[in-house]
Amino acid sequence: MGTHPIMFTEDDPGLAELRRLALALPEAAEQISWGRPVFKAGKIFAMFGGNAKGATKGTMIAHPYSVLVKVDDSERLALVQDERFYYPAYMGPYGWLGWTSPSPRSTGTKSPNSWMRHTG
Fold first, then answer.
1. 116 lies in a domain?
2. Cα(91)–Cα(95) distance, integer angstroms
3. Is residue 113 part of a domain?
4. Which has the least CB within 10 A, 46, 50, 55, 89?
5. What Gene3D superfamilies does the entry give (predicted)?
6. In the chain, count of helices (H) and strands (E)?
7. Residue 48 is part of which domain span?
8. What's residue 3's pLDDT?
9. Which CATH number covers residue 46?
């Protein structure tokens, strides 16, 4: 089994905010999987950072300041209308969406906090 490179920095303010929100949930824990911080309470409910498949075969578009969460099918159609959301490579087919910000300090007025309470 291969080893994934670490794809985040410990001092990232977006990661600090996600940790604050995620680890406040009952039984939540953090671990590193696929080179990224993932948050779980039994099963994974959030991941920091992601990629989307590019238009050219084999290319990826990095979304380093994003949060991946699993969403209900009924929410997905509405959420993808917002340009901040993307279909993440590998996780998208399993019901996950990515919410991205152009920088770790400009997350906007809405955050994925409420998703974390309803995912799974």
1. no
2. 7
3. no
4. 55
5. 3.90.1150.30
6. 3, 6
7. 13-104
8. 86
9. 3.90.1150.30
Q: What is the pLDDT of residues 39-55, one digit of tens each?
A: 999 999 999 999 999 99
| Residue 25, phi then psi, degrees to nearest 5 | -80, 150
How many Cα atoms sit within 13 Å of 109 on the Cβ side? 0
Angstrom distance (rounded) from CA 2 to CA 28:
27
Question: CA angle 96-18-47, nearest 5°?
Answer: 30
What is the chain's mean pLDDT, rounded? Answer: 86
User: Token pair of 102, please?
Assistant: 């152009």
Residue 109 lies in a domain: no
pLDDT under 50 in the chain at which residues?
A: 1, 106-110, 117-118
CA distance 57 to 79: 26
The answer to whether residue 111 is domain-embedded is no
